[in-house]
Hints:
Radius of gyration: 17 Å
Shape: elongated
Mean pLDDT: 84
Helix content: over 70%
Oligomer: single chain
Number of domains: 1
Distance between the termini: 30 Å
Strand content: under 5%
Amino acid sequence: MSDLTLIAEHIHETMEALERTQEVGNGLRERVTRENYAAFRIQMNELHERLRKLSAMLLHEDEMALDELADALNRSFDKPAAEYRHASGHG
Length: 91
């Protein structure tokens, strides 16, 4: 698995964790119980850990071609590849 594919997978997983955290947070807002609070804390901890790992990956990644990252993200989300663009911004 390439570095860009790995980064794209981490972005995808982090976005899914964010969605789950929002869902659990809505449940807590609708009904404050010990169980809902515990579920929210667990989900927040998972989101925090995923964000920490993703941040560390991005800090150590050399400048990447955005086209390649876009393609990796599209594959991660099962979408078609992005149209070709010049990474240099020319042409």
